[in-house]
Design a protein that fits this description.
single chain, about 140 residues, mainly alpha, 10 helices
Length: about 140
């Protein structure tokens, strides 16, 4: 005969409180970041490596930090290259047209500077376009 009053014992309650302070810290950090974007965290770590600023500080306002970093890099590039500065001052929309390409323009201007005298003028963008249109023969043969 079975004893109808003999209920099976319930499992012990799960203890969510962690005794080890390091485990408790890890659990707290993990739970508090469940809704965070892992790609933003990875970007903050990348920026830390390139800027030296703590990634936690960067991650707190990643968008603002990236905007400030871009502005600082752009200002440094323009101040360091008189040709780009002159170009940007040549027309009110030049900075808009060249937005995002200043690094390439900087590299190109330094490459042109390193060419023997006389080639810089020839290789200016406008001159190259004219040369390609008007020369019926290969430019490599000329050079």
């Amino acid at each position: 005969m079975t004893d109808i009053y003999n209920f099976p014992t319930a499992p012990p309650p799960v203890d969510f409180e962690v005794e080890d302070p390091f485990e408790k810290l890890a659990v707290g950090r993990t739970i508090s970041t469940l809704d965070d974007d892992p790609q933003e965290a990875a970007r903050a770590i990348e920026l830390e490596k390139s800027t030296g600023v703590n990634s936690s500080v960067i991650h707190a306002d990643l968008e603002e930090f990236e905007a400030n970093a871009r502005a600082a890099a752009t200002a440094q590039l323009v101040r360091g290259n008189l040709k780009i500065s002159d170009y940007l001052n040549s027309h009110p929309l030049a900075p808009v047209v060249s937005n995002g390409d200043l690094s390439n323009l900087d590299k190109a201007s330094y490459a042109i500077k390193s060419l023997p005298k006389g080639f810089g003028t020839l290789l200016a963008a406008q001159e190259v376009a004219k040369a390609l249109i008007h020369f019926p023969f290969d430019l490599v043969d000329i050079l």
